[in-house]
Amino acid sequence: MSSKSKTGEQSAVESSFSPTPADPKRRRLLVAGASVAGGLGGAALLLPMLDSMSPSARARAAGAPVEADVSKLAPGQMMTVEWRGKPVWIVNRTEDALASLRSDLDKLSDPNSEQDQQPEYAANDVRSIKPELLVVVGICTHLGCSPTYRPEIAPPDLGSDWAGGFFCPCHGSKFDMAGRVYAGVPAPTNLEVPPYTFITDDLIKVGEDSGAAA
Predict the structure, then answer these.
(1) What's the pTM value of the predicted model, to 2 decimals?
(2) Contact, 184 vs 127, CB < 8 A?
(3) Of 157, 177, 21, nearest in space to 108 by CA
(4) Predicted pLDDT of residue 62
(5) Beta carbons within 10 angstroms of residue 27's beta carbon
(6) How many Å apart are CA 4 and CA 6, to the nearest integer?
(7) pLDDT for residue 38
(8) For residue 77, how many C-alpha atoms fall within 13 Å in the half-sphere facing its CB?
(9) Which of helix, strand or coil describes residue 81?
């Protein structure tokens, strides 16, 4: 091979690895694109972080009070709100349900609410501030299952003496319409009544204890 050919091949190889002068416009476009992509990626990471640290989420986790509007809660109906990660049931009891609370007390383990499972203003035969409105934590006091609301009278699966209340399907514990536990079931105590107060006649604040005044 001639020296001229070697020189030409060497020049071609060197030129293929030699850096070319950068195009200023292309460089600006690449930088801008990288900045936009980086901004989008940062936003994607930031949004979940902001959501997880929102004041309302932090407040709920810390047990901040929650409000419940019971204005549309018809007699016999139940609604659920969440407080401290627990379901809190609010039941608008019928006149028949309230009347049943004064009968068959010998079937209950703690009919007079002697165990400390409620604020002082709910330590009565209806376990509530207003007789018709029951507020209880919907967690069985046995092993933490969530009972079901069974307001019907004498259903086949619960027997002819069932006057309405709450039934835990996990281990068979029964509670009456005041959340009082029946004798002879696994649950040792009545359902818990959380602290609550009435802001108005139709607005309940769960988690704030300001006495029995409506």
Answers:
(1) 0.70
(2) no
(3) 177
(4) 57
(5) 10
(6) 5
(7) 47
(8) 8
(9) strand
198 burial via Cβ count (<10 Å: 0-12, 13-18, 19+): middle
Please give the CATH number for the structural domain made up of 64-206.
2.102.10.10
Q: Is pLDDT above 70 for 81?
A: yes
| Domain extents in the chain | 3-52, 64-206
Instruction: Please tell me the total number of residues recorded for the chain in this structure.
Output: 214
* E strand spans, 65-150: 66-69, 78-83, 86-92, 133-137, 148-150
Residue type, 178: A
C-alpha R_g of the chain? 34
Beta strands in the chain (DSSP E): 66-69, 78-83, 86-92, 133-137, 148-150, 165-167, 174-175, 196-200, 203-206
d(CA 19, CA 16): 8
Q: What 3-state DSSP class applies to 2?
A: coil
